[in-house]
Design a protein that fits this description.
There is one protein chain. The protein has helices at about 25-30, 30-40, 45-50, 55-60, 70-80, 90-95, 110-120, 130-135, 140-150, 165-175, 185-195; strands spanning about 5-10, 100-105, 130, 160, 175-180. The chain is an alpha/beta fold and about 200 residues long. The protein has two domains: about 5-15 and about 80-195, HAD superfamily/HAD-like (Rossmann fold, 3-Layer(aba) Sandwich); about 25-80. It has a five-stranded parallel sheet with strand order 3-2-1-4-5. The longest helix has 11 residues, at about 70-80. The two termini are about 20 Å apart.
Length: about 200
């Protein structure tokens, strides 16, 4: 249907397991609070914005003696760590079979290509809106309004899904519907309630 809802889906901790809590601290041999303490103050956000080249990120993310980062080794760890959250692949399959239009709306650097290499996420939905290419991160209003504009639809046509409440609240302020992700079964129930899927 031409007026059917369009899903805009966050990726990390919504579709895909985020290795930030375990694998990344283990890689650096630093507890997560210490990693946040010593890391470069803006490198990650700049990397997600696409304003910092990958090699430059590895050079500055951690100061000596912790850095520079061995980027290829880190990406190998990430490749092995990325996995679908429980029940998500089945839900995406059902959405695809129902011919529901879906797009990513993700704050992430070029490492999204590692997710793609590991999981082939684009079997289900395209990497349409990734901050390293759009240059804007959620919860900035332009992340949502820009997506709707690119798709040529009013924001009210879109349903945004994210595990972060503040990102969902920001989407609602632009006129989108939004679902705070908790689990695949909860998301399925809410999509049924929104009329996207049949029970």
């Amino acid at each position: 249907m031409s007026d059917s809802p369009i899903l805009l889906l966050d990726v990390m901790s919504t579709l895909v397991y985020d290795p930030i809590a375990h694998e990344i601290p283990n890689f650096f041999d630093l507890p997560l609070p210490k990693l946040f303490e010593v890391k470069h103050p803006t490198a990650w956000v700049d990397f997600e914005h696409g304003e910092l080249e990958e090699d430059d990120f590895y050079d500055i993310f951690l100061p000596p003696p912790y850095g520079p980062v061995d980027g290829e080794r880190l990406k190998a760890v990430l490749h092995d760590a990325y996995r679908w959250l429980d029940g998500i692949e089945g839900l995406l399959t059902d959405l695809r079979e129902a011919d529901i239009q879906m797009h990513t709306l993700s704050n992430y650097p070029v490492w999204y290509e590692v997710i793609e290499s590991s999981l082939n996420l684009s079997r289900y939905l395209p990497w349409t809106f990734v901050s390293c290419h759009t240059g804007v991160r959620k919860p900035h209003p332009d992340a949502y309004l820009g997506a709707a504009s690119t798709l040529g639809v009013d924001p009210s046509r879109c349903i945004f899904v994210d595990d972060r409440l503040n990102n969902c609240e920001a989407a609602r302020r632009t006129g989108m519907r939004a679902i705070v992700f908790e689990s695949a079964s909860q998301l399925r129930d809410e999509l049924v309630a929104h009329g996207v899927l049949q029970r």
